[in-house]
Amino acid sequence: MSKEFVEYTVYQLKEMPRQDFINELGTFTTSLDFKYSTSQEKSWGDCYDYLNNEFQNTTIYDQCILLFEYCLPFTNYRRPDVIMLFNGKVIVLEFKRKDIDLIQDVDQLRGYLNFLRKFHDETQRMNLLVEGALILTTNNENHIVSAIGFTLIKGKGLINLLNDFNNRNPLDRESSLLWANSSYEPSKNVLKATFNMFMNDDLSMIKNISEHELQNVLDVLHRLTIESHQKKRLIFLTGVPGAGKTLALLHTLYKLNEDRFRSVFLTGNGPLEKVLSYLLSNAETGADGEALIKGVLAYKKAYFNRGTKQPFLNRKIPSTILFDEAQRAWNEKQMGASYGMSEPELILKVQGEAASQNGYTNIVASIGFGQSIYKGEEDEFETWVKVLEKSNYQDWEIYAPSNLKGKLGHLSNIVYVNDLNLATSIRSNFIDTSSFIEAVLNADVITAKEEYQKLCEQGYFIHMVDNLNSAKRYLEKNAIETGDKFYGLISSSNMNLNDHKQFLGNARMIQQSDTKETIGKWYFKDSSKLDAIATEFVCQGLELNIPIVYFGGDFLVNDEKWQVKPTKHYEDRETTIRNIYRVLLSRGRIGMLLFVPNKKDCIDTLSFLKNIGIERYDI
Fold first, then answer.
1. By the 8 A CB rule, do 592 and 460 touch?
2. Exposed e or buried b for every residue in 124-151, given b needs 16+ CB within 10 A?
3. Is the dihedral of CA 510, 513, 517, 519 positive or negative?
4. Which distant-in-sequence residues (6+ apart) come within 8 Å of 254 by Cβ?
5. Residue 435: helix, strand or coil by DSSP?
6. Helix H segments across 442-572?
7. 422, 418, 409, 579: which is closest to 492 by C-alpha?
8. Which of 422, 506, 429, 445 is closest to 209 using CA atoms?
9. In 10 A of CB 36, how many CB atoms?
């Protein structure tokens, strides 16, 4: 399907049978890979009834185009109910089968209006005003109320509102379809405000590594991406956890977009996307983190039209993609038959089209190893290698650090640049915990003990606790002495909270599916309350000063070896569970607490950690 909306004129809607209308919206929704319920069908029918009742006694608006379920570009298919287009104005209608309006309904509508004003290219180019109405269809007051930023219609009244707007001249069909196929384009004001916030404000939560410490890699990325060229370039940036890969991409992102929109920061890590968006938003200044921080799923849906002979939607594609944690890109199996390719290949195809549009393109992909934590990611970097071996991509220039020679050395279109590898973790005041973590994961007591002593000498601390009160006492005491309350509970997503209530009380689990506000607030404000636990999906790519790593039972020592608890949803259970704990154990900036319950199945784990030299805190 080449369109991402369903359109009728008002006249066509009036002539269309009700069930045909519902069926077409259902078919369209299914084509987007969304399921719909009986409740959704009732809502579509309610919308049909309302519009027909409003328009039945007038022909003034018969030629006006109605866009149903319009997919806002680059938003993972956020869809207002109805959009009407007039000369000089866009009107968004959101229908609710309710008697009263709820705050979430208002927020939803305001979000649509905000997007169209700030990020919709044709709305800006055509200089269209954006208005919105929340319509409560089961309310019998038949009353129009002016609210802050929108209009509330209680029952009947849409025609009266349209008449008040003096919207007698609908946008012609050609212009309406041009508007509907708009590209995603942040306004210059939003870009400038977000750029200034990133470059000038104190964002220590993500900018704990200085630009000076990354200068060599920033210089290389500047030369390869920001300086003009007429090439298709794929640039790999590697590094150990905490070395600053994400920050290097963010610096490049904002330098690229200083004057105009040219690039996006792309990640398959949903919580990282949400936290960065949350952090880089400021209503007072107009900064908006969502302007440039996007998820891979939204990118795929925005620019690739799968299952058709015309795979590229008629939209302008950003010239540069900065793809963080690109080793987590899905393989072909996880992408499914409708795509018929892996995520790396899809991105190369889309950015190849971007090169046709713009005359050049860049993909900068940061790669970490041993951090795949979801199905479809098990192949890690090999997914990229398999694609680059194909003849279709021999016209790409590839730049990579020399540590990838073993994987890419057979390719002829590659240039090696040593400054594209960040070999030292500078997360914890240049204390590199990676050797210690690998020894722990290998159950190598001797090496882990040696590495732990090195960490202690450098000021990094690790303590064991076997109950939450001990952890709280330690952290509260530390906060009094240092003023540092940037700590929180993290755990594998396989933990069953009901099994561990005696240790964690009524703590809830923060998952990838939670909202930007929930994850952002936990990370920046609420984590120290210790009433919620972030899983590996939430904390990957992010750090706390002192995380409390909970060993919940899926990874415990038994007979001097790590034992992985059986789980159903991993193709390679052993590797994935180890990767999860590699992520969890590398989240601490200055130290960490290991929360291991004092119970029978944890005895060997407690003994293992004690033999390394990690002491129990119990005061």
1. no
2. bebebebbbbbbbbebeeeebeeeeebb
3. positive
4. 194, 195, 198, 199, 292
5. helix
6. 445-457, 468-482, 501-504, 516-521, 536-539
7. 579
8. 429
9. 15
C-alpha–C-alpha distance, residues 463 and 548, integer Å: 10
Q: Are 82 and 93 in contact (CB under 8 A)?
A: yes
d(CA 550, CA 585): 10
Whether residue 116 contacts residue 108, with contact meaning beta carbons closer than 8 Å, is answered with no
**Sequence-ordered list of residues with C-beta below 8 angstroms from that of 572, at least 6 positions apart, any chain:** 378
Amino acid at 220: V
CA distances to 90, 259, 388, 538 from 332, in Å? 40, 37, 14, 25
Torsion, Cα 189 194 196 202, to 10 degrees, reads 150
Angstrom distance (rounded) from CA 405 to CA 411? 9
b/e sequence 47-63, b meaning 16+ C-beta within 10 Å: bbebbeebbeeeeebee
Q: Which domains does the chain carry? A: 6-180 (no CATH), 188-422 (3.40.50), 434-612 (3.40.50)
Rounded to two decimals, what is the model's pTM?
0.76
Give the tens place of pLDDT for each residue, 218-275: 999 999 998 889 999 999 999 877 678 888 999 999 999 988 889 999 988 777 888 7
Using one digit for the tens of pLDDT, what is the confidence trace for 40-87? 999 999 999 999 999 999 999 999 999 999 999 998 789 999 999 999
The alpha carbon of 213 is separated from its chain's Cα centroid by a whole number of angstroms, namely 27
Helix, coil or strand: residue 550: strand
The neighbour count for residue 578, using CB atoms within 10 Å, is 19
Q: Collapsing DSSP states into helix, strand and coil, what is residue 398?
A: strand
Integer Cα distance of 413 and 392 in angstroms: 12
The CA-atom distances, in angstroms, between 441 and each of 95, 354, 366, 568 are 54, 42, 24, 22
Phi then psi for residue 295, to 5 deg, are -90, 155
Question: Cβ neighbours of residue 616 under 8 Å, at least 6 residues apart?
Answer: 463, 464, 465, 466, 606, 610
Residue 237 has φ and ψ, to the nearest 5°, of -115, 120
Dump pLDDT digits (tens) for 563-582.
Answer: 988 776 777 888 888 888 98
